[in-house]
């Protein structure tokens, strides 16, 4: 028999640790090569980690709930001689399937005292004062190797810099801008962008008979991010009613041919296409706020919110303005399917510049979404359905007709996007949807 070490993998260069959230096998179980062995949670996504070789799970070194650095030995497999996988490289590749987080169902209903935060599992690095850092604090202070190198060269404390990246991460642009302003700026930025680590959720007493379920990592990150966004951005919303009758007609004609090519043509694809084309025309909507500066994004990367049983995740269509309607529809199908089947990679949910959320599929007329930081706008799509509508004929007479209608709501950051800017963008999106060119389908 040969022994094969199973290590905590590195899910991206900026990830320094992972939480082993669930064992999918128990000691003594047989496993096949590449069969899911355990689940991990990181600050980006959750993932099922495949077995590096076929054999028997002989030892479990890291228990469920423990957070350990990458490359930590988590288990040992026993394999037939010659069946062992080659030694893992010093920096292993991310597994093929990096899915969105999966909730951890509690084994038993906790007692009312469980409402208080549970003690952190062993294995978490301590901060400089001997306390334990949260995942969000580690995310900000670790950042990427390049950012840490720049910080070291300039003797800069990364934790002092307002991060504009995912979950408050300090990016290369953030630290370079900070260094450039350092001679004249105070040590602490005047208007920092608070990271999720500053979010506190009050405790509430659980009553007898209540069931207390601890948040999964994705729920915790989402909750922190939403509270932080409401605190940081000056949220304003505009509502536009859109006549989707023409889109419905074009979709009806093209659905068959799209389906033959393995693509489901949805109303969302038309909406994403209309937004992608108009974000170039209205660049202020495709920006981010960094301190007292506005970053005009060079790329148009549209995030599409996907509701899953275990939470919400926003995979991103990169360079959406360069894609045809077919390309956007295919990307929406692909990202949505990989989100549901746990195949997303960390890069799939990063670098978004504008977000679309589509709760209309569940039936609401309209809603007011929260901005996905550090973006400045998010579009919400209400239910698209047939409704009575006053229609004016060419001779000026009015009549009531049955039309396919839907409501678009955009929340935007009034610090940089004025009402006129938002409404001009939405007006152009509406016009394109109501006059969508048949040749573009």
Give a description of the structure:
- The chain is α+β, with helices and mostly antiparallel strands and 441 residues long.
- The chain has three domains: 78 residues, RNA polymerase II/Efflux pump adaptor protein, barrel-sandwich hybrid domain (OB fold (Dihydrolipoamide Acetyltransferase, E2P), Beta Barrel); 85 residues, Dihydrolipoamide Transferase; 208 residues, Chloramphenicol Acetyltransferase.
- 24% of the residues lie in helices and 23% in strands.
- The chain has eight helices and 19 strands.
- Strands 9, 12, 15, 16, 17, 18 and 19 form a seven-stranded mixed sheet that branches. Strands 1-8-6-3 form a four-stranded antiparallel sheet, with no helix packed on it.
- The longest helix is centred in the middle third of the chain and has 16 residues.
Strand composition percent: 15-25%
Q: Tell me which oligomeric state these chains represent.
A: single chain
CATH topology of the largest domain: Chloramphenicol Acetyltransferase
- Relevant CATH superfamily of the largest domain: Chloramphenicol acetyltransferase-like domain
The helix-strand sequence is EEEEEEEEHHHHEHHEEEEEEHEEEEH
What is the number of helices? Answer: 8
In which range does the helix fraction lie? 10-25%
List the helices and strands and how they pair.
Blueprint: E1 2-7, E2 17-23, E3 30-31, E4 36-41, E5 46-50, E6 55-60, E7 67-69, E8 73-79, H1 135-142, H2 145-153, H3 172-181, H4 217-232, E9 235-243, H5 245-260, H6 267-281, E10 287-290, E11 293-296, E12 302-304, E13 306-308, E14 311-313, E15 316-317, H7 325-340, E16 354-357, E17 377-381, E18 385-392, E19 398-413, H8 419-434
Parallel strand pairs: 12-16, 16-17
Antiparallel strand pairs: 1-8, 2-4, 2-7, 3-6, 4-5, 6-8, 9-19, 10-11, 12-15, 13-14, 17-19, 18-19
Helix pairs in contact: 6-7, 6-8
